[in-house]
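BACKBONE STRUCTURE TOKENS:
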Amino acid sequence: MSPRPASFSLLEAPAPDAGFAGKLTTMASQPLHEIGPAGPGFEAAALGFTLALAAKWAGPAGIFWAGEDAAFAEEGAPYPVGLAQYGLPLDRLIVARARKREDALWAAEQALAATGAIVICALGAQGKPLDLKASRRLLLFAERYASRCLLLTPENGPSAAWTRWRIAPAESAAQPDELGLPAFRAELTRSRGGPAGVSFIVDWDAHERSFAEREMARDLSAAPENGSADPRWARAV
């Protein structure tokens, strides 16, 4: 494995109670993250969360979005006006559509060679699950060139990613007659750099290119037999 660049040091990781903002700070220093839908029908939410992360982290090297046909067929072709309104810098965005998964992975690897780039590798639900070797290659390219990869995939198999997130849409915090910010329920199911098994509900502000975490209320009386409780989300005050 290639040596990890200094830019990926975890020595300044935030305290465990730093909330979602702390998780984002730690993630920004890690090279590969996996994002997928929390359940059937939540693919658009997973894509929206991924694009928001890319917009937040985008730097001079820009964003490269490599996707296989199956991924674009499921969610539709990117719409430039909508992407700009969502916070993505169109002057620093390149989208590549590949017929085969192998081609999408290859394109993502090549883009990761641009130091500081944010690379989205979007894979569809069809075909064989992504093997560990493929995600390790993405990790190594990102490590070597100090870039970051967001692996958007519905699979839940072995992965070299530093974190694994499962995303669902969340209820808007806006008034009934208003259009609210995009809202997500983000569950961190795996983390190589710290504890996992935590959920957040966040709003994406495209103008500020920032997430805002809402307060969470947990109803312990609703705990199932295994002792865990389902989180119930409270609106921001």
